[in-house]
Write a structure and sequence with these properties.
Mean pLDDT: 83
Strand content: 25-35%
Low-confidence stretches: 107-138
Distance between the termini: 25 Å
CATH architecture of one domain: 2-Layer Sandwich
CATH class of one domain: Alpha Beta
CATH topology of one domain: Nucleotidyltransferase, domain 5
CATH superfamily of one domain: Dinitrogenase iron-molybdenum cofactor biosynthesis domain
Length: 285
Amino acid sequence: MKIAVTYENGNVFQHFGKTESFKVYEVEDNQVVSSEVISSGGVGHEALAGLLANQDVDVLICGGIGEGAQAALAEAGVELCSGAQGDVDEAVAAYLKGELVSTGVNCDHHHGEEHSCGDHEEGHSCGGGCGSCSGCASAQPPITGRNAGKICKAHYRGTFNDGTQFDSSYDRGEPLQFICGAGQMIRGFDAAVADMEVGQKVKVHLMPEEAYGMPDPSAIITLEIAQLPGAEELKVGEQVYLTSQNGQSFPVKVTEKDDTMITFDANHEMAGKELNFEIELVEVK
């Protein structure tokens, strides 16, 4: 069996039709035996169903998805499990344990406990800061170097300036696979790998502009609770997903709440942070 997950920087990408890559898992006897990251090839929405079918994918795990894409997946014989969030490996593990429940077509925003709210008001920012989104990457010069455009596998360890580790492929026992310069990684990571040789190890210090950007004040969204059915049950600190007017889901965190108003922060949780990476290039093809 093959399971595909919409993929961005190790997490479940939240808009199926705009995903730039999938992490595809080969499963035998309910255990993952291998995985790889593949590009979506620039196609979107219903056309992605054909791409997955051509890869012999049996199950798709994703965040948000529309009705047309769901119908295309059904026609292609691909089982859908939507509404997932967080780490892609953990999402697959939860699916294999029978703990991941699909929310189906989820045009409204939602969160882990399946509360549901309506679309937020037009005019609010949906960007959530720059992060590593392809829209921001397109406004910058393309990544160049010997590995640009090639499929790379790299081990890495990420730490904050105080030495606290926030991520490590070494701990997972599997290098990360990505297309260098395709916007699948934060820009500073891509730039570091672009000219590395296989077997080389480097240490890089990234300023926020090279990582997840600076916090964007316009990504703070305050709404009346009455506008959002289900919002009365949310708690400060909880992560949820909002849906923009064009149907794209994006993660936010509840930062303030009173009897009538609720405030969400759509900035990436690492926005404004300096990051350090130890990178080891394992393979280029």
